[in-house]
Amino acid sequence: MTVIFSKKCEYGLQAVLYLAANMFDDVVRVDVIAQELNIPKEFISKILQSLREHGIIDSKKGKTGGFALAKSPSQIKLIDIVEAIDGLSIFNSCVLGFPNCNPDHPCPVHDKWGKLRTEAYKMLSEETLDKFRDKTLDKIKNL
Amino acid sequence: MTVIFSKKCEYGLQAVLYLAANMFDDVVRVDVIAQELNIPKEFISKILQSLREHGIIDSKKGKTGGFALAKSPSQIKLIDIVEAIDGLSIFNSCVLGFPNCNPDHPCPVHDKWGKLRTEAYKMLSEETLDKFRDKTLDKIKNL
DNA sequence: TTATTTTCAGAATTTTTTGTCTGATTTTAA
DNA sequence: TTAAAATCAGACAAAAAATTCTGAAAATAA
After folding, report:
1. What torsion do the CA atoms of A12, A92, A98, B7 make, to the nearest 10 degrees?
2. What does the domain layout of chain B look like in residue ranges?
3. Cβ within 8 Å, pair A82-B2
4. B-contacting residues of A 47-86, CB under 8 Å?
5. pLDDT tens across A6-34, in order?
6. Does the predicted model carry a pTM greater than 0.85?
């Protein structure tokens, strides 16, 4: 099997995009997020807690509790979520699994892959959550 | 954690590149491959068997046995190994983990990610093993 | 033919990732 | 003040991926 982001990270990205698209709500309960996105409640709950520890989202406890973004959507980049959950190792470790893959001792595909990787990193670093609101709403609606 | 190719696939790519770089040998024993690449012998053995079933490499049993490419290096593309081991799901499943991600119901990053993915696929489909011989030899030497 | 050396096949084990359960803590509404 | 409804924390369980083990089968050299 092949993966880009872990399931945790995929779900984390989905949830944060969902929160960004629902800014008009004060907070959103974890069971609403879980239901809307078809993610096991207890699992997304753990992921949201970890994103809170990383300062990406805020939580409110108690009867009227739930989750909301910690900052405005325009201040949160996709890479922030990826970094918080999966880390950035994908962007500096060898795609062929060779150790010490660097310009001095490059793996056979070092140059070609490095270019693609840089583009991916750039995309995730440039795009902020506010740019996705409409597309997220549309996607959720058709889930 | 984040992964592009599974460990199996990484090791498979390494081993096939190694075989391509050592075409002057008739066959290479699995314990030599394992030692040169620092891969557990029993594990790479399994991977090589699976690549043989996919027709990418050949094996010879018995006292003078070992493995060799089934075709000339110029006829084997990187994507062949990826497809045999990890499959091509990475190239047509949603990077955010959304179901039914397609042009009709795209995920928020569908367009931007799709472009990168296509480039990656193109690279892996265009590059054949013969182009990597020198770089592979250099990398192995400095492992 | 026989001993040796290799790949082969499948099961078993370990580790990592994913997902679940239990109960405590916090907050609010009645 | 009390009951209800939410998050929180940590242990637990299940599933998947990675790795190892065991012994058979094949081929060659002596």
Report:
1. 0
2. 7-141
3. yes
4. 78, 82, 86
5. 999 999 999 999 999 998 778 999 999 99
6. yes
